[in-house]
Amino acid sequence: MENNTESKEIDLSIVVPLYNEEESLPELAEQINKAIGSLYSYEVIFVDDGSSDTSLEVIKKLGAEDPVIRGISFSHNFGKSVALQAGFEKASGKYVVTMDADLQDDPNEVPEMVQMLKDGLDMVSGWKKERFDPISKTVPSKFFNFVTRKAARIELHDFNCGLKAYKREVVENIYLYGELHRYIPMLAKKEGFSRIGEKVVKHHPRKYGKTKFGLSRFINGFLDLITILFIQRYFQKPMHFFGTFGMLLLLAGSGINMYMAVLRLVYNQGIGDRPLLFLGILLMVFGVQLLSTGLIGELININHVRKQKPKIREII
Ligand code: UDP
Ligand code: MG
Known about the structure:
Blueprint (H helix, E strand, L loop, with lengths): L3 H5 L3 E7 L6 H12 L5 E7 L6 H11 L3 E5 L6 H11 L4 E4 L11 H9 L4 E5 L7 H18 L11 E4 H5 L11 H7 L5 E5 L15 H19 L3 H28 L9 H33 L9
Helix pairs in contact: 6-9, 10-11
The structure holds uridine-5'-diphosphate and magnesium ion.
The site of magnesium ion has 5 residues, from loops.
């Protein structure tokens, strides 16, 4: 099924999100060229996430010297996920590789990762087995990876490694925002790309500048994990989540208050000061609220779900 557009397709798009990394960029461009320049046709897409240093000028200069280097620059800082998403949308390679700009990731790992894709994987995630980061980062990261691994049921050791390789189809089918870049394997799996592998990669200490993520990374990280688990299970059917609880509470509340009604009407007892009466009322009101929340969720969802088409594997 060769046609003209397909034969012009390049092998690799390397997407590099960056925020104030002016010192690293020339060295990174050189490292990439050395590692893969003779192996593939490729492009490097530098996504300048609103840097306030001279990163943009450096990218322009590198682009003028070497046409494989391209760039996008944001008006201000949107975060790594948004930067990656913009890079993905611009990528035209058959395979897409992401790496950090700070020289911590090693481009020499790319050929083997690409080979794993050629051998059938949908995505390959790097695993910084030996890591050159402060302990304040490595220990929470181990915990984070453990929880994510169990929750997502994906056997990866290092979800948040910046160095990853994908078939382009994968990045075309996921949408990154907020801080979802930490959960790309989960998003990919949700879209049906379940052949996910990992490769132990060399990791280097940060050479220039400093890390762009503070302690807030862990709090935000876990809030995002809750969001993504919720979206994964109940995205199509919010009513199933809210409705189940709502129905249970409403039933319990109605039961209690029916009992109260029998006491009042049949046995002629005073019920005005019974705490159980108030519990019954509370449960009923709360139950109805949850049911309506589920209904509103469904209304918000309906237009979106209508647009969703199943991804066809094959038509026979
Ligand atoms: N980065 C970005 N936007 C941001 C924060 C970071 O594009 O708002 C880039 C950063 O320049 C680097 C990569 O994301 O290329 C990883 O960031 P960093 O090295 O600070 O993270 P760490 O290695 O400490 O996890
Ligand atoms: Mg780094």
